[in-house]
């Protein structure tokens, strides 16, 4: 038997494992989410993509990010617990997101959306204000539409200023289902803002502060201008745009 | 693609060339580790590539161009064998889909008697035998890899081989 004639082959999958380890490929798993089964992709930088399993995923991912995507048996431990926690609480405190491929503006928009408390909604114009581009409402809409990690980054909490839910990449009914799962009451909305005559503070209707106002005492405003004219000041919590 | 081309493309774009680097070196790296460390070989090969990747990311292109890729990889691998305890957080993920070209590969059965004989050798002798007699590195290259004098490597290899001969193995 000759030592020089030994040739062992690397096991199946070693290269792919290596690409996962180095972040040159992403892995993905199917997880249960508040709106049913979703694909969740990740790499060494964090979660890179999320989509319901009813949507095309693997081909879309490869076309968009141009990295290999490999099915794996589970998420890395820290990402797994972070994703589960975020699904439970609706707050993005526990995971890192791979933001590569997003412009600074897109990132700012998505982070502003992620700051909206679960069960509450804000208008597109509010995001535009938060990111310091008050006139870029349309660009806000398209940045949210490109959200690579929906559900985790709560683009579904951004709605039209008239209270209608507005568009959602996976359909308005899924947006409604997500918001309902977070406890947003589809209560009748009689204006864009609601205030308390006692405190002269005005809020977005889904804000926790607004929901605390006695229903008989609520004063509804059709527009921000009307609230400003009545000399109401914006709530510190939901920071409605009055100008 | 020759090793020279591979070094050049790595120097140009690590991320794009790295998968080809793995393809070009994985059989040799895994095969050698399989004989030296047994069933930990796959984990160690993964660890080695991760360290190699991180190093390449830091190196300026000029430094990458001067690398002797395969000996350099073995230097990393042998360092990794010395401190290689995986924590649970590094528990490997299991791939559940296979690329078609990967599935068609038929790994050769590993000769466990040889692996046992190799592992029974003192570490330096086993390393010298595997790198020289199995993988074909010159004594000068091995001396660089293990950072020991060439004469020492040569005598390690010959002592290791002498032991293996008694069990029926030839160079």
What would you note in describing this structure?
The complex is a heterodimer of chains A (243) and B (171). Chain A is α/β, with parallel strands linked by helices. Helices cover 32% and strands 17% of the residues of chain A. Chain A has three domains: 14-89, Double Stranded RNA Binding Domain (2-Layer Sandwich), CATH 3.30.160; 104-181, Winged helix-like DNA-binding domain superfamily/Winged helix DNA-binding domain (Arc Repressor Mutant, subunit A), CATH 1.10.10; 193-234, no CATH class. Chain A contains nine helices and ten strands. Chain A has a four-stranded mixed sheet with strand order 3-2-1-4. A four-stranded mixed sheet of chain A has the order 9-7-8-10. Chain B has helices at residues 3-12, 14-37, 41-58, 61-65, 69-82, 100-103, 112-120, 123-134, 139-146, 150-165. Chain B is globular. Chain B has two domains: 1-83, RNA polymerase sigma factor, region 2, helix turn helix motif (Rna Polymerase Sigma Factor, Chain: A, Orthogonal Bundle), CATH 1.10.1740; 111-171, Orthogonal Bundle (Arc Repressor Mutant, subunit A), CATH 1.10.10. Chain B is an all-alpha fold. Chain B contains ten helices and no strands. The chains are: A alpha/beta (243), B mainly alpha (171). Chains A and B meet through helix 1 of A and helix 2, helix 3 and helix 8 of B.
SSE diagram, text form:
The complex is a heterodimer of chains A (243) and B (171).
Chain A: H1 14-22, E1 26-33, E2 36-43, E3 46-52, H2 58-65, E4 69-71, H3 77-89, H4 104-114, E5 122-123, H5 124-130, H6 137-145, E6 158-159, H7 172-181, E7 193-196, E8 201-203, H8 208-211, E9 219-221, H9 224-229, E10 233-234
Helix pairs in contact in A: 5-6
Chain B: H1 3-12, H2 14-37, H3 41-58, H4 61-65, H5 69-82, H6 100-103, H7 112-120, H8 123-134, H9 139-146, H10 150-165
């Amino acid at each position: 038997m000759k030592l020089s004639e030994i040739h062992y082959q690397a096991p199946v999958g070693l290269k792919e494992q290596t690409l996962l380890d180095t972040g040159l490929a992403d892995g993905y798993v199917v997880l249960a989410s508040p709106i049913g089964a979703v694909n969740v992709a990740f790499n060494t930088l964090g979660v890179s993509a999320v989509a319901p399993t009813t949507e095309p995923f693997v081909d879309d991912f490869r076309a968009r990010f141009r990295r290999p995507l490999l099915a794996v048996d589970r998420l890395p431990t820290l990402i797994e617990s972070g994703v589960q926690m975020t699904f439970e609480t609706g707050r993005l405190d526990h995971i890192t997101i791979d933001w590569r491929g997003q412009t600074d503006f897109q990132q700012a928009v998505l982070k502003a959306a992620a700051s909206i408390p679960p069960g509450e909604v804000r208008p597109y114009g509010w995001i535009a204000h938060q990111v310091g581009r008050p006139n870029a409402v349309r660009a806000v809409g398209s940045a949210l539409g490109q959200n690579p990690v929906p559900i985790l980054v709560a683009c579904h909490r951004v709605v039209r200023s008239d209270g209608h839910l507005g568009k959602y990449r996976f359909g308005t009914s899924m947006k409604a289902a997500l918001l309902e799962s977070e406890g947003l009451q589809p209560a009748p909305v009689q204006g864009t803002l609601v205030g308390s005559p006692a405190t002269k503070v005005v809020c977005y209707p889904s804000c926790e502060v607004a929901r605390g106002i006695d229903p008989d005492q609520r004063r509804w405003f059709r527009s921000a201008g009307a609230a400003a004219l009545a000399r109401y000041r914006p709530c510190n919590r939901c920071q409605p745009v009055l100008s | 693609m020759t090793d020279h081309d591979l070094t050049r493309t790595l120097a140009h774009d690590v991320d794009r060339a790295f998968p080809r680097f793995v393809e070009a070196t994985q059989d040799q790296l895994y095969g050698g580790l399989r004989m030296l460390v047994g069933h930990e070989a796959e984990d160690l090969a993964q660890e080695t590539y991760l360290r190699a990747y991180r190093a390449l990311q830091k190196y300026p292109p000029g430094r990458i161009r001067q690398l002797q890729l395969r000996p350099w990889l073995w230097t990393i691998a042998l360092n990794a064998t010395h401190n290689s305890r995986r924590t649970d957080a590094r528990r490997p993920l299991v791939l559940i889909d296979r690329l078609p070209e990967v599935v068609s590969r038929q790994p050769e059965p590993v000769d466990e008697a040889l692996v046992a004989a190799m592992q029974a050798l003192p570490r330096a002798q086993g390393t010298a035998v595997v790198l020289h007699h199995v993988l074909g590195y010159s004594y000068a290259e091995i001396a660089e890899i293990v950072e020991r004098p060439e004469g020492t490597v040569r005598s390690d290899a010959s002592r290791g081989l002498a032991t293996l001969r008694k069990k029926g193995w030839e160079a």
